[in-house]
């Protein structure tokens, strides 16, 4: 009976211990590389920061693979206010893969419209996705997935990730 009580208490306290983990980030003075660890940084480390999991709250960053791909091949989604079905599917595909992206809402008289015309050869057609220097006009899931695969984006968002709110950027 006492063993079962001990196991039950340990099972209840385990999530609290996991949640209280601390993550350290610093720049290694020897190599100049950024290090993430659960161990405190050595003396002389530059740009050292500490964050408790409890302090992080619900701010979830994209996966490492998505951040690495976004650094080399940033994604921009061009939409318009009257594009509902295809633009929603485009957003869902990007969010489903955990792709960080900026969304540009195209309206007449706005600089985004001129950018889109240059990109598409004068035809303001939405949705358009730009991945690095490549782009695809219109929503066609296979073509978009192929472009994202080639850029190194993950095929699925990590469990528990939140959809991007690109218009808030």
Automatic annotation (TrEMBL):
| Annotated Pfam families | DUF4124, Glutaredoxin
Q: Where is the signal peptide?
A: 1-20
Q: Does the keyword Signal apply?
A: yes
Q: Which UniProt keywords apply?
A: Signal
The source's domain of life comes to Bacteria
Q: Which SUPFAM superfamilies match?
A: Thioredoxin-like
| Residue ranges of every copy of the Glutaredoxin domain listed in the record | 75-136
Decide whether keyword Signal is in the record: yes
Cite the InterPro entries for this sequence. DUF4124 (IPR025392), Glutaredoxin (IPR002109), Thioredoxin-like_sf (IPR036249)
Record region (Disordered): 32-63
User: Where does the DUF4124 domain start and stop, copy by copy?
Assistant: 11-71
State the name under which the record lists this protein. Answer: Glutaredoxin family protein
């Amino acid at each position: 009976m006492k063993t079962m009580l001990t196991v039950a208490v340990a099972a209840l306290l385990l999530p609290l211990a996991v949640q209280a983990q601390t993550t350290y980030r610093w720049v290694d003075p020897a190599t100049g590389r950024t290090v993430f660890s659960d161990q405190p940084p050595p003396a002389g480390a530059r740009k050292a920061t500490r964050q408790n999991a409890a302090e992080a709250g619900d701010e979830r960053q994209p996966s490492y693979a998505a951040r690495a791909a976004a650094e080399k091949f940033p994604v921009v989604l061009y939409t318009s206010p009257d594009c509902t079905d295809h633009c929603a599917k485009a957003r869902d595909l990007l969010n489903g893969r955990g792709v960080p992206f900026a969304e540009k809402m195209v309206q007449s008289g706005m600089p985004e419209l001129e950018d889109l015309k240059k990109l598409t050869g004068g035809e303001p057609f939405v949705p358009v996705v730009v991945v690095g220097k490549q782009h695809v006009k219109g929503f066609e899931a296979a073509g978009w997935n192929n472009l994202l695969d080639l850029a190194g984006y993950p095929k699925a968002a990590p469990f528990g990730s939140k959809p991007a709110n690109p218009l808030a950027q």
